[in-house]
User: Fold this.
Amino acid sequence: MTKPSLRAALNSGKFVAAPGLHDMITAVIANKVGFDFAYASGYWTTASAHGIPDAGIASYTQMLDRVATLCRTSNASIIADADTGYGGLLNVHHTVRGYEEAGVVAVQIEDQEFPKKCGHTPFKRVVPTIDMVEKIKVACEARRSTETLIIARTDARQVEGYEGALKRAEAFAAAGADVVFVEALESEDEMRDACRRIKAPMMANMADGGKTPIRSAKELEDMGYAMAIYPAMTGLAAAQAAFKALSAFKELGTSVTPAQELYSFADFNELIGFPEVWEFERRWARQSNEG
Assistant:
């Protein structure tokens, strides 16, 4: 199966809106709905796989396994959060190669110190700009395919202020980043100004509950963004649904209540591929009987 090219989409001027897929149930549901692109968030894949915070605790190996599984499961092309590149320049090189082999179409790296923090939580620290510039250059050199994009993120807005973050973003664009991502901007004015000043395709992070105002894909395109991720949407929706279901069960002692709607078990079996398994069983059971 040939998946959509992110580079081609951006070159054509098509705005890319990518929902976050935090687990494989969400991935197969997204296959049914239909998306060209989706996002593998470090925060949400870590939370769903391990139940721990996005604070540099999950290892490169754990994240690579999760990303590779998502790439195999999803029909969409996956844009993947690779945190800081999991270390120094050699680690960045190894990370880009690993993520590319896993099947992602874009690798996102950021300028935080290791261990990193979620971009919308406190106590972030950033590395010197030159260190991140070198990571971007190594990342660009490490990729084997021109279809693999490098997304450079700065978390300096809350550390060095808005102008400090923009100065870094300009340096990242000059270093060769295919897409620039200024994390946790705090107003629509900042978002518009950043798109106007940065001479590279810009990505917006629509993190529900975070510091940046949530805007629609059309509004972001009008501001000047080339693409946007919505990393928290499915994770928060799933958490709310699970909380509601469990609360009703604790109170009423049954899964069948007017307070919640359950996805069809028959439809879910189809989503995850049981019909193919049953057809296999029928075929080989028949051949065994004939033998």
The first helix runs from residue 6 to 11. DSSP finds twelve helices and eight strands in the chain.
